[in-house]
Amino acid sequence: MNPFERAEQAGAELVERLGGRFDAAVVLGSGWAEVAEGLGAADAVVAAETIAGFHPPSVPGHGGTLRSVTVDGRRVLVMAGRVHLYEGHPPADVVHGVRAAVAAGCSTVVLTNAAGCMNPTFGVGQPVLISDHINLTGQSPLFGPAPPEGYAIRFTDLTDLYSSRIREAVCRIDPTVGEGVYAGLVGPHFETPAEITMLARMGADLVGMSTVLEAIAVRHLGAEVAGVSLVTNAAAGMGEALDHQEVLDAGQAAQSRVAEVLSTVIKVL
After folding, report:
1. Residues with catalytic roles
2. Interatomic CA distance for residues 21 and 253, integer angstroms
3. Are 269 and 23 in contact, with CB atoms under 8 Å apart?
4. Looking at the domain covering 3-267, what would its CATH class be?
5. In this structure, how many other beta carbons lie within 10 angstroms of the beta carbon of residue 129?
6. pLDDT for the residue 112
7. Could you state, in order of their start, the residue ranges of all structural domains in the chain?
8. pLDDT tens for residues 149-177?
9. Is the pTM higher than 0.85?
10. How far is CA 246 from CA 35, 197, 220, 243, in A?
11. In terms of CB atoms within 10 Å, which of 129, 139, 175, 255 comes out highest?
12. Using H for helix, E for strand and C for coil, what is the string for the chain?
């Protein structure tokens, strides 16, 4: 089964087991799993690994559930956790969840992550809308055989990858939300100070180990993409020594603010 067919199968299972098709999906990043509760009570919940093609997350701070939540009258698929390239998964597995979400009806996918920050105007705990990204993973979800018949060609235009419509609407409602460029690296190690200096000179404000492949896959399928980073630490060389627990603690401390921003994003869809 090719990756697109596998995603279609998973999407059908999501619709069947969670009670119908969805309007939007939210993918929760490191330390964000409990934010799902802040979006509203779940109408239905399944373990991710019980759906075709999904792997249970192995990284601390990533949950392993898929839930249906009604937010502002919209059916939202909340995906608590994701898998990463650095866990040894191929790109097709990394983006399987978002492809399944689109197959389940989602016309918008909101990608979240925990991020280090090079921009001194953003402090720890600041939610930042992703305005663009720099993909430094050396990978693409569109590598390999061409997409099957019925799908767009793989030469996808990424000019407005992170929806300007959504960003503008969110900033009108909540002008305290920042905007910045996200650099996606493979990880799992944190970056060196020299690498952070390079990334800042390239125009990046934020850095992390996820999101970029998912965004490309969603856009290829014709759905709208929104991205929200939570600044969890100053990047290497700009603060204290880096630690994954620090990332999780910052996510925990900012849960109510994060849920508020995500609710705003969903309301403007």
Report:
1. 30, 62, 84, 86-87, 114, 209-210, 233, 244
2. 33
3. yes
4. alpha beta
5. 23
6. 93
7. 3-267
8. 999 999 999 999 999 999 999 999 999 99
9. yes
10. 17, 21, 34, 5
11. 129
12. CCHHHHHHHHHHHHHHHHCCCCCEEEEECCCCCCHHHHCCCEEEEEEHHHCCCCCCCCCCCCCCEEEEEEECCEEEEEEECCCCHHHCCCHHHHCHHHHHHHHCCCCEEEEEEEEEECCCCCCCCCEEEEEEEEECCCCCCCCCCCCCCCCCCCCCCCCCCECHHHHHHHHHHCCCCEEEEEEECCCCCCCCHHHHHHHHHHCCCEEECCCHHHHHHHHHCCCEEEEEEEEEEECCCCCCCCCHHHHHHHHHHCHHHHHHHHHHHHHCC
- Copy the structure tokens of residue 114: 């925990």
Side-chain half-sphere CA neighbours of 259 within 13 A: 16
Question: Which pLDDT band, with edges at 50, 70 and 90, does 90 fall under?
Answer: very high
